[in-house]
User: Fold Cytochrome aa3 subunit 2 from Thalassococcus profundi.
Amino acid sequence: MNGETTLGRFDTQTALVGAGTGAEMTLVLTVVMTVAAAVIFVAVMGVAWWAWRRETNVRPWWVWTGGVVVPVITLALLVVGSSLTLAAIGEVDEEPAVIEVTGHQYWWDVIHDPRDRSLRDANEIVLPVDQPVTLRLKSEDVIHSFWVPSISGKMDMIPGRTNALTVTATRIGRFRGQCAEFCGLSHPLMAFEVVVVSTENYAAYLDGLETEARDADTLQRTRGRDVFIEAGCPACHAIRGVAEGARIGPDLTRVGGRASLGAGMWAMNVGNLAGWIADVQDMKPGAQMPSYNHLSGPDLRAVAHYLESLK
Ligand code: HEC
Ligand SMILES: [Cu+2]
Assistant:
């Protein structure tokens, strides 16, 4: 989904910019712990220097207080602080919306409102700002890990179970996420984007998910749609209104509207689309899609132009 971009694209995968309540609380905790550690380090070094400079031995009182009492109290405070933060993350007042995200080698299937499984998208998760959302995290193959550093901490996606991560995005913008658990050859190429939008734009986005794909409105795009069907792409990909049902690869109904191609990896444009279709194994080694290097040049261009027009 384009528009509403307030931050740059590839500099947004950082835990130092808080854009969700979980990440903000973790950031505060990190700063408190780092400052506390720095103060303790300086104090210990000071005391060590003082003890070293003394002519006579220090009294045991110093050892007991500085070596046992103070560390026990300090560590206890930090443990309480981090436990309270952990407990507070994910606590929400209103009933959260539910989005189901399923990890696949090496892409993300996204279902907005799992009761209506047709509200489907891929490799891009749109979130409403300031509203709690529970992400139901699953996997279809191996263990992946869902991580958007600016929004929240990590959560594993484990085959055969559903993990819940409740997040509240607090800033409109675009934030990068990344699979954080080694999951195969192209694990480092398994990223995605989270787009945080206003409540009105979120409603518009959900409406858009219900509509069919844009019509092929030029000769080339019509040819591209035919190539898509003739080449057998619908065995794995769905385009709503054109070819439905297949779930082995990402839903392509709005593929041209995503900011990136190949799960957060390349800019979305006709050139990259054509390169992907002709030689996906070069752009993403091990991807569960064959390279279509037998397509003629005009057919390849046509299908790339057609997919790019789907917004
Ligand atoms: C055997 C199943 C399969 C077939 C057949 C297949 N694909 Fe794919 N396709 C995939 C998978 C799996 C992915 C996700 C790859 C990844 O990112 O790891 C994918 C990804 C894509 C993407 C990127 C989507 C995105 O969100 O970035 C495009 C575009 C695409 N395929 C187009 C095609 C076209 C066009 C054809 C037919 C010429 C085709 N595919 C045939 C399985 C398939
Ligand atoms: Cu992964």
Q: What stands out?
A: The helical segments are 21-53, 60-88, 199-210, 219-230, 270-283, 297-309.
